[in-house]
Structure formats: C-alpha cells, structure tokens
C-alpha cells in the first residue's frame, strides 16, 4: 500500500477526459480511488464504462454513488429538454448550453473532498477543460481555485494544519486533440470510454456537442476513434 500522500480521488465519469486524467494520475505515482456519480443523467451508460475503466487502470477502489439530480432539473441531461445537435464551433462558444447541470461539479467535488478525507487522499484529479468545455462555468480555473480555498476552510483536514487538499486538472488548458495525444502516450483504453450526451442505446449519437468535439479531436490527431457511432 502506498503512503497516504500518494492517494488520489479521481472523479471518473467514464468519459474520454476523465479517463486520460486518471491515466495521468497513475503515471504520477498515485494510488487511484475512483469516484463516479450516477446522478440520473440520460447518458447513464457512462457509469458502466467508468467501472470498466477502473478495472483497466487498476484502481484501488471504485465508489459509485447515487444522487438523483433530476429532482432539481434545469438541464437537458437530467430532464426532457432536447440535447443540441450538429452545432458548429462558433455556436458552442456562445453562452452556457442547456446541457449544463446546475451545481454539478460543485456537488461532485464536494463529495470527492469528503471521500478524500476518509481514504487519506491529498488530491482530487478532475478532468475539467477550459478550451473545449462548451461554456460550462464550473470547468474554469477560477472555480477550481475557489473550491480549493473553500475546502481548506471547511474540512477537518484543512483546519487541522495538515496538507491542504489539491484539485488537479491536468487537462485544463489542452485542446481535445492534445488530450487524445496524451492518452495515446499513456495507452488509455479509449474503446472503453463514453462521451455522448444523448446515446442511441449504447452507441454514441455522433451529433451532440460532446460527440462533435471528440470526433474533431480524433480527426486532428489522425487516429480512428474506436467507439461506435449511430451516425
């Protein structure tokens, strides 16, 4: 067992970004404690993919928590509103899309901080990205730094004078193509990942913002995306 300061909680959605993030944490010598939140999302197939990724990367543990954010609503991912399709880059960069889930990353990181206290982890790895993030306010560096400050003031570990909990977002300033290149270097099992917001069965729709960004990234790298698409 590695010492506690090498333990990391990884917010693992089963998506491409969180999987590359987990692989980076592993490369940096961390013992991986996967945390996946099943929040009632329409693309819940990603939860099973997260389980497969955890096994493939040799996670020490994998906690799947159930938290139904459909009760709050306010997002196309947890409600009946249509997921946008076939949007061009300039459209994706304008405003906050309806796929934004109110408070999602704030809630997820709070749960991850609690889990980190219990397992003795000193950091949380989080697959946030500010370049291809489709307008989500809770993927910005300002949010991450503010969250770290709040955790320092609001947890036992923070006020007891121990090591402050860090939130590491190694993909924050990378393009999707750069993320894919990094994943290739680390032999990431891309075939296990799921990125689609509105899947057709277990197949990616190929048309939502997340699918479009992913497909553009693989095209720029010149590598075939190994997952199946409905269109």
Provide an overview of this structure.
The chain has 231 residues and is α/β, with parallel strands linked by helices. It has a single domain, classed as Rossmann fold, CATH 3.40.50. It is built from eight helices and five strands. Helix 2 links the parallel strand 2 and strand 3.
- Report the CATH topology name: Rossmann fold
Domain count, please report it: 1
Number of DSSP E strands: 5
Task: Note the beta-strand portion.
Answer: 5-15%
Structural class: alpha/beta
Q: Whole-number average pLDDT?
A: 92
CATH architecture: 3-Layer(aba) Sandwich
Cα(first) to Cα(last) distance is 45 Å
Task: Compile the SSE list and pairings.
Layout (H helix, E strand, L loop, with lengths): L6 E5 L4 H12 L3 E8 L6 H13 L3 E6 L22 H4 L11 H16 L3 E3 L15 H14 L1 H4 L6 E3 L7 H10 L23 H13 L10
Parallel strand pairs: 1-2, 1-4, 2-3, 4-5
Helix pairs in contact: 1-7, 7-8
Short summary of the structure?
With 231 residues, the chain is of the alpha/beta class. The protein is built from eight helices and five strands.
């Amino acid at each position: 067992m590695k010492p506690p300061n090498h333990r990391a909680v990884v917010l693992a959605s089963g998506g491409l970004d969180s999987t590359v993030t987990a692989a980076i944490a592993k490369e940096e010598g961390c013992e991986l404690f996967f945390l996946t939140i099943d929040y009632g999302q329409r693309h819940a197939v990603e939860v099973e993919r997260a389980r497969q990724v955890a096994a493939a990367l040799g996670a020490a543990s994998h906690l799947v928590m159930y938290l139904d954010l459909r009760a709050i609503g306010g997002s196309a991912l947890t409600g009946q509103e249509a997921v946008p399709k076939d949007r061009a880059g300039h459209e994706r960069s304008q405003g906050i899309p309806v796929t934004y889930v109110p408070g999602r990353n704030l809630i997820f990181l709070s749960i991850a901080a609690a889990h980190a206290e219990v397992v003795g982890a000193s950091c949380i790895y989080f697959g946030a990205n500010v370049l291809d993030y489709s307008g989500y306010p809770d993927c910005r560096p300002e949010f991450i730094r503010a969250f770290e400050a709040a955790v320092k003031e609001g947890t036992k570990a923070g006020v007891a004078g121990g090591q402050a909990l860090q939130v590491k977002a190694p993909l924050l300033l990378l393009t999707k193509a750069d993320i894919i290149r990094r994943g290739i270097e680390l032999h990431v099992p891309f075939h296990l990942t799921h990125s689609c917001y509105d899947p057709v069965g277990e197949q990616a729709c190929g048309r939502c913002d997340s699918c479009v960004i992913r497909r553009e990234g693989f095209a720029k790298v010149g590598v075939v995306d190994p997952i199946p698409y409905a269109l």
